[in-house]
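Re: that backbone. Tokens:
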């Protein structure tokens, strides 16, 4: 639809009324954002109409127009050529506007560099070729840009992550300008590609397997170089998936004034954490009909859209299928979303965001359903090639997906895995995956519902019915025990003491009175277990009740828990009380750590005691461990910020040093514990457990590498273990 048909006069004639300034801004915003939503032969007339509209209001709305343009440039990647052409045409008629856009572009680039806005920086850099195509900048500007980005390759003051990123910027920009350069500056273009290739000859890829989510493949930078070489050798630098609207306006654009590109300044970035490019790419489908470069461009579009629209999944899903391509992209979309879920060491956003995208697309783009089903089955059949952490993510995302579609799946196809006595690792891993999926969907629903939709063969893999196990029970008690399933208790002394304590809680006895009562309990009674389970019992109705009970009796806990052994007994009591609900175990222990009744290190020490080794392969165990680690990181972040604001505070510095030391001790306990388990004869004789525990160690080392690096530098034995699993 042309802009004339939207009730807007692009020629700027007399209007029936004068819009308010805000209305005008809103209308211009809408027009700029929507242009190119439906790529067609009418795009040129739409551009022409929009340019005339902008020229009419440019005197009063210049700043607003530039603001809108730059927001679109950095968030709508496939429309970059359209916005470049618009700026070019306006520049031909208003050179000052073109100059201001160029200066602002460089300011935005320099700002993005300083703020480490790497995704936005890539799209801003990519706008420079489009300004060259639109004759706003001379063609020499692109070589000035590339020289700046690659300048540090001739020095020793760079890390591989840094050099990878800037090489990536160059390679990821070339498809937008390569065809133009091949016609006018072929020698310089070839020299540029050769310079990049020479960098690859010295580049290390020793970390590739460490960050490999699936079967072995090229890392991201290696893949892009192959795409660029195929673009050069097979497509003569032409890319169908990149719009070229400027070709229609050559006569106007050639009359424009060109501007000088101001300097781009690479900041002193010794503390920057650059994106990682050394991990293997997630590749699910190898034989797609389009050219490799077309697949790469579509992947770039998809990843950028998912990144910039992460706060609005519906808009993201809409834009994913608004790309200027003529081929089907369902398989690429599925692979791309899965690759983001499976990104190592962690996803850019929480996996649930990507899962929700699938849900949206199932409703609006049903052609994606067969591609999703194929991908799910293919991954299930090749689970032994997936990293353990990725298997867990896959199970969680798949369970969430099922919960939104009435748990419908071709369950009968997986039944053969569950029957028989096969003990090969592939079968065991598939059973592990199914168990993980079932645990997750029960959390998202309830047990009886899931039983009703699953074939009988799956029931043995379902978790037990959620119920507390309060063993201090006797039917004659006057204290209400609720309607939960409980166990009889043979120790009358414990039963009696539990009833007395519960009565004190029920009647809201003053805290001093309760402390005095507990102090007089016979030494033969396990007071830590008694107190912990009684508090859990009075909070059993809901998590709100539990939070209230814990918060009310924090002082009581701290008065009773006096030794590390008491903390260990508290954890054991929690796990026993909620042994029929892993979700409750995770949440309750997290609350105890949050209220500082337990320390993060207590949980790590508990699970790596020899008598608790059997629990280390449980999902809930690793949720508890990661929650505990995150608690230490939050404390350190807060103290670091406080120290930044109060640089001379010896007290804050001391607290920070203490927190860092405690965190290091936590990681030492964790790494040594995992290493001991891997070396134990019990684990060595159980292939699945060996694979799982090795996978957990690998996952921890990836996720918290910056935190454990100082430990590894001072512990050669642990360093050897990490190096060994990195290549598995």
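Recovered sequence:
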């Amino acid at each position: 639809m042309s802009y004339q048909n939207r009730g807007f006069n692009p020629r700027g004639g007399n209007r029936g009324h004068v819009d308010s300034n805000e209305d005008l801004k809103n209308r211009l915003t809408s027009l700029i954002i929507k242009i190119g939503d439906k790529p067609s032969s009418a795009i040129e007339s739409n551009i022409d109409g929009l340019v005339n509209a902008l020229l009419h209001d440019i005197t009063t709305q210049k700043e607003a127009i530039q603001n809108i343009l730059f927001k679109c440039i950095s968030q709508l990647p496939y429309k970059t050529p359209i916005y470049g052409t618009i700026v070019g045409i306006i520049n031909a008629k208003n050179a000052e506007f073109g100059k201001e856009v160029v200066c602002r572009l460089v300011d935005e680039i320099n700002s993005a560099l300083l703020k480490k806005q790497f995704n936005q920086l890539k799209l801003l850099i990519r706008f420079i070729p489009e300004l060259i195509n639109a004759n706003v900048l001379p063609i020499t500007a692109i070589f000035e840009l590339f020289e700046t980005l690659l300048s540090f390759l001739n020095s020793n003051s760079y890390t591989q992550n840094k050099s990878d990123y800037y090489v990536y910027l160059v390679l990821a920009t070339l498809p937008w300008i390569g065809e133009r350069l091949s016609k006018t500056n072929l020698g310089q273009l070839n020299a540029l590609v050769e310079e990049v290739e020479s960098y690859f000859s010295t580049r290390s890829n020793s970390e590739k397997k460490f960050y490999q989510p699936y079967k072995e493949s090229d890392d991201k930078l290696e893949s892009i170089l192959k795409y660029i070489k195929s673009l050069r050798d097979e497509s003569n630098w032409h890319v169908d998936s990149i719009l070229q609207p400027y070709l229609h306006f050559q006569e106007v654009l050639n009359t424009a004034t060109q501007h000088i590109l101001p300097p781009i300044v690479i900041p002193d970035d010794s503390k920057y954490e650059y994106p990682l490019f050394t991990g293997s790419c997630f590749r699910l489908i190898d034989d797609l009909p389009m050219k490799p470069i077309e697949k790469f461009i579509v992947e770039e579009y998809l990843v950028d859209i998912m990144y910039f629209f992460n706060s609005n999944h519906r808009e993201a899903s809409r834009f994913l299928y608004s790309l200027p391509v003529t081929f089907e992209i369902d398989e690429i979309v599925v692979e791309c979303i899965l690759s983001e879920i499976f990104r190592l060491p962690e996803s850019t956003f929480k996996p649930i965001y990507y899962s929700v995208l699938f849900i949206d697309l199932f409703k609006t783009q049903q052609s994606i359903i067969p591609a999703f089903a194929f991908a799910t089955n293919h991954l299930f059949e090749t689970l032994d090639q997936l990293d353990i952490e990725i298997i867990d993510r896959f199970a969680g995302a798949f369970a969430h997906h099922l919960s939104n579609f009435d748990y419908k799946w071709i369950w009968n196809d997986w039944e053969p895995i569950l029957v028989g006595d096969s003990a090969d690792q592939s079968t065991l891993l598939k059973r592990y995956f199914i168990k993980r999926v079932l645990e997750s969907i029960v959390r998202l629903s309830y047990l009886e519902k899931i039983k009703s939709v699953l074939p009988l063969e799956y029931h043995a893999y379902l978790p037990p019915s959620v119920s507390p196990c309060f063993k201090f029970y006797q039917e004659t008690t006057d204290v209400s025990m609720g309607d939960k399933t409980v166990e009889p208790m043979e120790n009358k002394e414990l039963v009696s003491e539990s009833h007395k304590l519960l009565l004190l809680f029920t009647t809201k006895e003053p805290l001093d009175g309760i402390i005095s009562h507990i102090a007089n309990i016979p030494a033969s009674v396990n007071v830590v277990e008694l107190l912990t389970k009684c508090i859990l019992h009075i909070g059993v109705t809901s998590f709100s009740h539990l939070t209230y009970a814990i918060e009310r009796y924090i002082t009581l806990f701290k008065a009773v828990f006096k030794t590390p052994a008491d903390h260990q007994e508290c954890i054991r009591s929690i796990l026993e009380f909620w042994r029929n609900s892993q979700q409750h175990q995770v949440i309750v222990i997290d609350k105890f750590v949050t209220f500082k009744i337990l320390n993060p290190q207590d949980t790590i020490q508990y699970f790596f005691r020899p008598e608790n080794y059997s629990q280390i392969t449980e999902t809930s165990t690793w949720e508890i461990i990661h929650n505990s680690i995150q608690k230490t990181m939050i404390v350190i972040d807060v103290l670091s910020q406080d120290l930044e604001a109060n640089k001379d505070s010896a007290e804050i510095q001391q607290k920070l040093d203490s927190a860092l030391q405690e965190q290091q001790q936590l990681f030492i306990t964790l790494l040594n514990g995992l290493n001991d388990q891997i070396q134990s004869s019990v684990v060595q004789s159980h292939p699945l457990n060996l694979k799982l525990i090795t996978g957990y160690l690998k996952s921890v080392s990836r996720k918290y590498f910056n935190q454990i690096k100082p430990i590894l530098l001072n512990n050669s034995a642990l360093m050897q273990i990490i190096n060994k699993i990195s290549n598995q």
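The chain has a mean pLDDT of 90. The chain has four domains: 3-253, 294-461, 469-598, 610-618+626-728.
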